Amino acid sequence: MNLANFWKNFPGQWHFERFISDQSMLTGFLNVEKINPSFYKAHENGTYKNSNEQTFFRDYQFNWENECLNISGFNPKDGYVQLHSITDASRIHTHICKQDVYVFELKNFDLNSWRSVIVITGPKKNLTIKTNYTR
Hints:
By secondary structure, this protein is mainly β. Helix content is 4%, strand content 68%.
């Protein structure tokens, strides 16, 4: 499936399981709302499944422009910050946050499921975050 078809079917609720290499597991929901044909807002909320269960949430914005999917996440200090930008030609995006390198990859997506993998390496963080989303 190409990104344009994925984009058209992206709004709605997605359940996710997120595995972080430091042994953390998170479960929750990503709710995606269509604002206009090229802009979606999303809210993620869930629970850490470790020794102490804690809840979490994060807001996102998704923008579809020039066959490119741009993903921004809300940061309390800076507002919305661009996290990833991917195309059909390259479903991998690399950026540097402070001194750590983040490599995001969108994998195995269709109308009912998708997966993201983020590998973070650097002086402050060294971990892998794998998230599986399903309808």
